[in-house]
Amino acid sequence: MIGLDAIHVELIVKNALAEDVGSGDITTALTVPAHARAEAVIVARANGVLAGVDVARAVFATIDPRIMFEAEIEDGSEIEPGSLIANVQGGAPGILTGERVALNFVQRMSGIATLTAKYVALVAHTQAKILDTRKTTPGLRLVEKYAVTVGGGQNHRFGLYDGILIKDNHIAVVGGICAAVTPAKGRAPHTLKIEVEVTDLDQLEEAIDSGADAVLLDNMPVQTLRRAVEIAAGRVILEASGGVTEENVAGIAETGVDLISVGALTHSAPALDISLEFGGNHVAQHP
User: Fold this and answer.
1) Stretch 177-189: mean pLDDT
2) What's the rounded mean pLDDT across residues 168-174?
3) pTM listed for this prediction
4) Contacting residues for 248 by C-beta, under 8 A, at least 6 apart
5) Confidence label for 283 from pLDDT (cuts 50, 70 and 90)
6) Closest alpha carbon to 177 in 206, 148, 136, 138
7) Are 92 and 287 in contact (CB under 8 A)?
8) pLDDT band at 285 (very low <50, low <70, confident <90, very high)
9) pLDDT in tens, 109-130
């Protein structure tokens, strides 16, 4: 599981607050006394897997370090309508200003974790592992890929710099699979595996013969995937990708592929319904 390093989270949070708050929260400034204090709770309104608690904490700490954020449950917890996620106490202006950004992170990350957990459960009877892709929201890759691991999935390469994946366009530019794999094998660090994307079984055999460590089987039907597993015979890691849905992922996994990458985990996961509510009897106008 990748971690949420504090420096990266701080940068993401500051950018999100700059986008939302800008020069100031006008509504709160004009309606709520600066010294007002309040208590609020973050509560689940749907079933799912929680992710993003520490990011929400960072939002309020960035706005006002004096705000107390007490998590009741941790990332990875299964939640249902009414589940208490956290208590938030302190200056009412700060809580109001940070509410939307904090919820955006928790809702988005919990949605990803929840969808990932569904896919993982659907293939649990097989050897296949569920992976994410680079189809993430620009600027939010760290938290979105973290949410995938919270849901039980695994991370594919984080960026262009930490994994070699020779795709169809690379192959088209250099004129063939062997023409792409050979220089990569000669120049790549020994710690990096070389994966090649193929679209048919002839390309699969070419990739294996070229010395690829892993092969991405792009948009292949189940029958072809099954044949690919037979041809590879354990010589390379096989990853199925493209057109993967909740309806067909089990069938894909049952072909015997090692990995299944699902872009939908990060580009199409619906946000989980989570809210922040102020206690009616807790708002005070005096310090």
Assistant:
1) 95
2) 96
3) 0.94
4) 222
5) very low
6) 206
7) no
8) very low
9) 999 999 999 999 999 999 999 9
Q: Residue 266 in contact with residue 144, Cβ under 8 Å?
A: yes
DSSP for the chain reads -----HHHHHHHHHHHHHHHHTT--HHHHHHS-TT-EEEEEEEE-S-EE---HHHHHHHHHHH-TT-EEEESS-TT-EE-TT-EEEEEEEEHHHHHHHHHHHHHHHHHHHHHHHHHHHHHHHTTTSS-EEE--S---TT-HHHHHHHHHHTT-B---SSTTS-EEE-HHHHHHHTSHHHHHHHHHHHS-TT--EEEEESSHHHHHHHHHHT-SEEEEET--HHHHHHHHHHHTTSSEEEEESS--TTTHHHHHTTT-SEEE-THHHHSPPPP-EEEEE-TTT-BS--
Q: Decide: residue 155, CB within 10 A, 0-12 exposed, 13-18 middle, 19+ buried.
A: middle
Q: Are 222 and 256 in contact (CB under 8 A)?
A: no
pLDDT of residue 281 exceeding 60: no
- What's the token pair of residue 64? 């006002």
What tokens does 138 get? 């620009």
Residue with tokens 């990569």: 184
Q: Could you tell me the pLDDT band of residue 284, with boundaries at 50, 70 and 90?
A: very low
Digit-coded pLDDT (tens) for 211-268: 999 999 999 999 999 999 999 999 999 999 999 999 999 999 999 999 999 999 999 9
Mean pLDDT of the chain: 95
Spatial contact of 166 and 181, defined as CB atoms under 8 Å apart: yes
> Which residues have C-beta within 8 Å of that of residue 173, sequence separation ≥ 6?
none
Domains of the chain, first to last: 6-119+270-278 (3.90.1170.20), 123-267 (3.20.20.70)
Annotated catalytic sites, by residue?
100, 135, 167, 197, 218
